[in-house]
Amino acid sequence: MWPLYAAGFTTAFGAHGIAANLGGRSADAVRSLLVLGGLLALYDAAEVLLKPVFGSLADRVGTRPVILGGLVAFALASAAYAVAGSPPWLWAARLGQGAAASAFSPAASATVARLTPAATHGRAFGSYGFCKSIGYTAGPLLGGVLVWAGGLRLLFGVLAVLGTAVALWVAAAVPRVPPLPRRRQTLLDLARRLADPAFLGPTGALAAATAALSAGVGFLPVSGAAAGLGTITTGAAVSVLALCAAVVQPRAGRALDAERLTVRTGLAAGLAVTAAGLAAATLPGPAGVLLAAALIGTGTGVITPLGFAALAAATPAERLGQTMGAAELGRELGDAGGPLIVGAVAATATLTCGYAALAILLAAGLPLLALAHRTAASRSPGR
To answer: Each residue of 41-94: pLDDT tens digit?
Structure first.
């Protein structure tokens, strides 16, 4: 399992490590805000478009080739800019990294589900999420050190080495997971399955958690600066968010496997805690920033492993890649939508109102989540 966890770390470390340092203080840093925005959007756009495609491909040819191909492509895309170092190659490398991560990220999630018994899915996805959270936390910090030492080219070079090393590890240690026989699926069948409450409930919770996480990472530093916190203190406060998410995920997964927590209760509690964190961000002063970071991190840490475990339990094994790709698409939309909502409301009112608006939306999702669980239970009484 550890090579799969390492693949999750790689995509998280690469995404946040570069995103946080593209506009840093290095000779090859991006100076134009328009170019910076385009480079950030390019990576996410590739993921939104391609994750469902590569998830379906993993079901067709097996997950291991897709993981290996994605990691090798990630390494090559990173090496391209590390060697060339020109602006056009930066665009090409960023697009290549996003496309490559779109391949190995959902395939790795599907492999985690295939290689572990259903009774331990919570623990497996909790560990997978823990490693991704460590990547999100370490990316900006270690990436900043690398950019300070050798510019963006050094960071891309390290990512090329990391992608190559993880690919070799996967090739050596992860067994081949052959594709399972599948009955023919029409577009109507796919639409029905993706419209099933058993899919919509967990995916909606995952999207909401990612929206809150992304908004917290993006806007809590603004609140910290307004509260008089320095750059280091504000960065530490945001790190609390990622650290809480990392610590909570394995524990939530183990609680699910031990039947101390159900999916329905856990997702509802996670949404409530995350909404409370956004509400806490409206409080003035440093206490509001720290409390918001801790609550948002804790809530998302509960939701993430439970959401993926629920999706794995409700999906035929031969369609796991497709489901994980579609769920990842939902998370990407939440990743983009959360900051957009907060920013749009803040632009017309205040940042406090932006936090409150997103908190209300998450709280409104609680009855919808309960309805989805009741509908899914009525359709599959034995689930």
So the answer is: 778 788 878 888 888 888 888 889 999 999 999 999 999 999 988 888 989 999
156: buried, middle or exposed (CB in 10 Å: 19+, 13-18, 0-12)? buried
Residue type, 247: V
Tokens representing 9 are: 């770390």
Q: Which has the closest alpha carbon to 93: 178, 159, 167? A: 159
Give the distance from CA 325 to its chain's centroid.
12
Band (pLDDT 50/70/90 cuts) for residue 381 is: very low
d(CA 20, CA 25): 11
Least confident of 162-166, 174-178, 313-317: 313-317
Q: Which sign does the torsion angle of CA 74, 75, 76, 77 carry?
A: positive
User: From CA 228, how far away is CA 236, in angstroms rounded?
Assistant: 14
d(CA 241, CA 216): 8
Which pLDDT belongs to residue 229? 73
For residue range 271-284, what is the model confidence (pLDDT) as tens digits? Answer: 999 999 999 999 98
**pLDDT per position as a tens digit, 111-144:** 888 888 888 888 888 888 888 888 887 887 788 7
DSSP-assigned letter for residue 316:
-
The residues near 280 (Cβ < 8 Å, ≥ 6 apart) are 288, 291, 292, 295
Nearest to 83 by CA among 154, 10, 165, 162: 154
Q: How far from each other are the two terminal CA atoms of the chain, in whole angstroms? A: 27
- The CA-CA-CA angle for residues 1, 294, 10, to 5°, reads 30
Euclidean distance between CA atoms 187 and 197, whole angstroms: 18
CA angle centred on 335, ends 33 and 315, rounded to 5°: 150
The token pair that represents 59 in the structure block: 């079901």
Q: Measuring CA to CA, which residue among 308, 293, 311, 312 is closest to residue 245?
A: 293
SS3 percent helix, strand, coil of the chain, rounded to 5, is 85, 0, 15
Q: Residue 382's pLDDT is what?
A: 42
